[in-house]
């Protein structure tokens, strides 16, 4: 048991080290550096082109002219102290930048996870119950063709239809600028109002996966002997489906949810850009454009760690749900 | 009023490729308080019957016929209507498999679940009743909170039983409850069931391929084959004198009933095609006639509460001897009564052993039966006397005899070919080319080489075992319906005799001829005989099922015969 635990921690640490190394070297392998940016993020933004002298000065100032391995060691040392470095663009600690934007991302990712899982499970169950009937075939076909639409395209369509034409939802941002709220309820409503479209977009991108997994696992599960046993006991269709079949079919869905959060953390970059939603996805994008190495590293690290934590949590939850698994 | 009545139930599984007739027109009734056993090989449709009663057959099943529970038609009820009967009236104990219980639910919850639903018990009350049930089935109540995978197979079976008993059902269906269990647990479950039946008077439908287990609990048995019932009747009668050839095969392949006999299964398989119209057992049957492959027989009462589905009315008689007498004139003018008023019967496909000490008249009887010598009085009827005129010995599908001493029964100066061909030659059967092929086939049957080189060997060059096999081939070439083997192994050494005997029994089992096996060696006869007739001074003193005769001989002479076996040094008897 102790040995298992040790090897588990060792595995975790080595995974983390590999992630850190990639986070560190990958941005630096991109052409350019933070001080030779020539492209502007948005039209009309002022392009500041530094002289070579200024560039060298800043490179020296941020220690970017030192050999890579020295920089890496320095980065690791600071990281041990909990210091993620300073953002070159924002001129403030990376940690603060992340803390500023992370909550928005967490909001839409968690929201999307909950919505896509619940609706996927419900639709999958309906589909499985009507297996081989028209409604199941139709739903399945719709879902599969739907899954082929990339999430950013879907986001654009939603934005055009609901925000531009119908004016039902805001075009950008996470809150109404300069709003004056009458109490927290109104503030919460405003936040939800802004988060709706990004959440829906993210949810829809994951829905088909959950739906298909639920449907197919349920169909497999319903052929099992224990379902026949439950049926023999005369418990009624609903109990058989929900307590016996769904309870077993949800096990792989739970595992999938863990991976799904990882996938969404990647997808969130595009979705947030489409909706100009100020989460870490959009921050990452501008950091990459601006070659803001410390910020890129910081955000990638946060994403990686959150994926690791999700997987750990899923393992723990799975162990609770499936008594056959011993963790 | 019977508790459950099934009328012409048919359950056909429709797949994309074909239709599997799992149950094909069966009818039976279960009276209140009765235990009915359904036995049959795997794939005979037993479990389908159980699932059919519970209304649990898969959607692709075409069901016809009626299932009546207390005169109420339950076979056409929808799911929700069926739920009224499930568990409270009819409960089932499933065969224990890894996933028969929900793997993510505690077993206690699974047992209490139907009580809460059907008996309106509070979860707390249900739980305490669950503990009682666990105690009833011999399971420690501490297991209530464990998951199925934490229990052993036997414990899971007990949980399944407790679950089935939870709502006090009127009818309990038990589907292969012991097949996965070891002998101890099997016995415990059996005792438990018998106990429960005595105390609570459950009506049970017990389904199993384990005929021993079923017969120890049930009062009546229905034997299923290929989706049909081929024989029903009281347990004891069916075990002691099975009437259908399939039932006999099943009983004979049961080691618990024939303790000493070597295990020989029923050769062949269930016919697979759907287009097959005849009796499903006919491809494996030893006594089939033309009609058997054309029409399928229906279950007919034959008296004594028994019913049987067979065109020939069950296992047919093959040879009947009535009041045979034969005596030798001794040199002093006295007569020795070698065969004294002997009557016996040999049925299709059966092995009858005639045992007795030397001089008891066995061989004389054998010679009379084989039509080698004529009896002074009495008659021998072969196939109901249809083959009369005493020529049943020299025709195809008649009677053949193999004698004790291969050295005198096969001539030294004959080649193997001539020796085996001789009966064909004498009886003018086949052309020369046909005969050669028949000889070769017969030699192959007895596992002798059929090369030209071997065919041209003289019998004098062969060993004792080989010569006895040549004699056997000479009998087999006439494809007998009855083979009389007269002490055929007594001249051979132990190993050779074992080989010849296994060969003979194998042939008999595969080709389905009947056999009279004459021997003074009790241990050997026990290995192959279905029935034993004991002979003493010309009389048959006892006949019966081989292992009954051996284990509980009733005649004084038989007792002495059984007692006179020389045990090995380490045996005490």
Please characterize this protein's 3D structure:
The complex is a heterodimer of chains A (327) and B (573). With 327 residues, chain A is mainly alpha-helical. Helices cover 73% and strands 0% of the residues of chain A. Chain A has 2 domains: 79 residues, no CATH class; 221 residues, Orthogonal Bundle (MetI-like fold). In chain A, α4 packs across α7, α5 packs across α7 and α9 runs parallel beside α10. The mean pLDDT of chain A is 82. With 573 residues, chain B is an alpha/beta fold. Chain B has 3 domains: 224 residues, 3-Layer(aba) Sandwich (Rossmann fold), CATH 3.40.50; 68 residues, no CATH class; 247 residues, P-loop containing nucleotide triphosphate hydrolases (Rossmann fold), CATH 3.40.50.300. Helices cover 32% and strands 24% of the residues of chain B. Chain B is built from 19 helices and 21 strands. Chain B is elongated and about 95 Å long. The model of chain B has no long low-confidence stretch (mean pLDDT 82). Chains A and B meet through α8 and α9 of A and α2 and α3 of B.
Mean pLDDT of chain B: 82
Query: How many strand segments of chain A?
Result: 0
The number of distinct helices of chain B, counting runs of at least 4 residues, comes to: 19
What is the CATH topology of the largest domain in chain B? Rossmann fold
